[in-house]
Amino acid sequence: MAAWLQTPPGRYLLAWEQGQVDAAVADLFGFHALQLGLPELDGLHANRMPHRWLVGRDLHCEFEALPFESASLDLVVLPHALELADDAHALLREVERVLRPEGRLIVFGLNPASLWGLRQNLGRLKRRSEPYLPREGDFIGYWRLRDWLKLLSFEVEAARFGVYRPPLRTEAWLARWQWVEAVGARWWPVLGAVYFIQAIKRVNGTRMVGLARNQRLAAKKAPAVALNHHQNKK
To answer: Which GO terms describe its biological process (predicted)?
Structure first.
């Protein structure tokens, strides 16, 4: 997927996602934040938590076996990690394990119910044709993912779709179709090529007083993992 993100449609998608995640994480507070994969998207750049890691750059581990204690993280960002995972269910369960009650989860996924998804599926049927999107990974529908989140006691706080231009390969043709962004967002919002979901982990009976106490304790002792890459630069 890294190579595809250097293409005109890849850069177009990445720019939309970067804007969404920067706005979403800027005002999320806590102590420990984690991004799983896709270093091309700096999902924690605009966040101010003191301890931030990117799996695949700052530490190396299996996504389904994260080296964090249960209920130890305040934010997890999954930029296309679920659709690229060998077992998306296992990955989502692991994320639920390491997130604190009231912790946030941010997910980006390619939308199969879009023009981009349709072109990709047609390309797979015509095996000789070059696929529009990366070959690896399986699309996970927006409503299907919401069902998975609900089963794991996540509550969706915010969701939106984006990237409405047709599946074109050149910068020039994508630029010509810029006008369709506003039209798509207004008239067929769920048909964007990519979706963004922000969810919160809910735990029945959780007391906010207890959460505040746990956060004070967590500030004194970070999880035993690699050093924060932002700190390493100093």
So the answer is: methylation
